[in-house]
Amino acid sequence: MANMxxxxxxxxxxxxxxxxxxxxLVFFVMSFSPADPARTALGEGASxxxxxxxxxxxxxxxxxxTRYFGFLAGLVQGDLGTYSARQLPVIDEVARALPxxxxxxFLGLLIAVVFATLLGVAAAVWRDRWPDQVxxxxxxxxxxxxxxxxxxxLIQLFTLQLGLLPASGPLPEFSEDPAGWFARxxxxxxxxxxxxxxxxxxxxxxAMVEELDRDYVRTxxxxxxxxxxxxxxxxxxxxxxxxxxxxGLRVGYLIGGAVVIxxxxxLPGMGTLILNGITNNEPNLVQGVTLTVALAFVVINxxxxxxxxxxxxxxxSV
Length: 318
What we know:
Elements: H1 2-30, H2 37-42, H3 48-58, H4 64-76, E1 82-83, E2 88-89, H5 90-125, H6 130-143, H7 147-161, H8 178-212, H9 215-222, H10 227-239, H11 241-264, H12 270-279, H13 283-311, H14 313-316
Antiparallel strand pairs: 1-2
Helix pairs in contact: 1-4, 1-13, 5-6, 5-8, 5-11, 5-13, 6-8, 7-8, 7-11, 8-10, 8-11, 11-12, 11-13, 12-13
C-alpha cells in the first residue's frame, strides 16, 4: 500500500512539470509561425502604424520569455488568447470542441477494448486451432488499415451504398437525441478503433497464453475447478497488466487519430478547429488546440498509470 501511494504521489508531482514543459514547447514552436496576428486581426488594409500599435498593445514585440510568462499567467486564469478580427476567446472554441473529441476518443477506445479482449481471449483459449488462425489474420489485416483509408471505405459502404449510418451533417446533442448521436459517431469511432483492435488483441492473446501455461492454472484444473472459472477469475485478471500498459501508449494514437477522423467525417471537434486555425492563419487558435490536446494526452496517460497500479496486485501488496 505504501508503495502504491508513493507511486501515485510521484505521478501527481510530475504532472505540473510535464504541463510546464508542454506549454513552453508549444509556445516556442508556434513563435516561428509566419502568420502575423496583427495583420490577421486588423486586415490586409491596415496601415503599418496601426499594425505596430497593435503589436505593442498585445506585447508581440516583447522577448520570447516575456511573452511566454505572459501567456502562462493567462493560461493559469483560463485564458488561451483570442483569434480573428473580432477578438473571439480561444477558450470558448476549445470548450465547445474538446468534449466532442474526447467522446469520439473514448467511444473508439471502448470499441477497441471490448473487441480486442474478446478476440484475444478466444485466440488464447483456442490457440493453434482454426479460431486462433482466423483471429490472427483479422488482426494483421486491421493493423494494415490506416484509419483515414478505413474511414473512406466505411463511408462508401454504410453511407453511400447501404444508407445505414450518416457520415456528415450536424451532430445532435446527446441529451436530446441519443440515438442520432450514436448513429453520427459510430462510423468515426469504428474507423478509429479497428487498428487498435488488431494490435491489442495480439497483446491480450500473448498475455493470456503466458498465464495459461503457469503452474497455478494446471494445479487449479487438476483440483477439478472448471476451466471457464479459472480463466475468468484468475487468468484473465492476471493477464490484464500488459494490455493495460500497451493501451496507455495507444491513447495518444487515439487522440491524434480522432483529430484526423473528425475532419473526414466533418465533426466539429478539435481536428476541425485546428484545420480552421491553419487555413485562416490563426496561430493563437492552433496554439490553444495543440496545447489542449497535448495536456489531455498527458492527463489520460497518468490515469492509465494509476489504473495499472490498481490492477497489478504486486504493487498494491508492497
